[in-house]
Write a structure and sequence with these properties.
2 domains; elongated; 7 helices; mainly alpha
């Protein structure tokens, strides 16, 4: 029985990390989780005694798949125990009012000039900063601030009568 030596582990990682990550992404459908699983597989290999060191890649592949299955099983179990009865649901009236408010906001946003609408959507829907919006739209920071201010003022004016 042989332990994969310290020198071969970085080479094994460099040669196979992307392929193992692709495998984990395909199985879990979540890139961040996939990265964690592949790293965990390499951590488990470190210091492990294998009958045949040439089987290290097979061990890694098997470990990634087993960890993926365990993760999916835990998620399934968690979903099973997350009963909708335990959550507080809004009343039918609250739901209707909320949807009416959302429609009113969307209708008001649609009436804005294109630049103001784009800036507000990037700022409040996408959560981008003024600098990021300026870079994406090819505008100065000052222009982004101006469009944001004018758009918000116009929305307040349009939505005020509904309040």
């Amino acid at each position: 029985m042989v332990t994969p030596d310290e020198a071969s582990l970085p080479d094994l990682f460099a040669a196979n990390y992307r392929r193992l990550l692709a495998l984990a992404v395909l199985v879990t459908d979540d890139h961040a989780t996939a990265e964690d699983l592949v790293q965990e597989a390499f951590a488990r290999l470190h210091g492990r005694t294998l009958a045949d060191p040439d089987r290290a890649l097979a061990y890694l592949r098997s470990t990634v798949l087993n960890l993926s299955r365990s993760r999916l099983r835990r998620l399934r179990t968690a979903r099973k125990h997350d009963r909708p009865d335990d959550r507080v649901l809004p009343s039918a009236e609250e739901d209707v009012l909320l949807r009416a408010d959302q429609r009113a906001v969307l209708d008001a946003v649609r009436t804005l000039p294109a630049r103001q609408r784009q800036v507000l959507v990037l700022r409040y829907w996408e959560g981008m900063t003024e600098s990021q919006i300026a870079a994406v739209m090819g505008l100065s920071n000052g222009t982004v601030k101006s469009h944001t201010s004018r758009g918000m003022t116009a929305l307040r004016r349009r939505l005020e009568p509904t309040r």
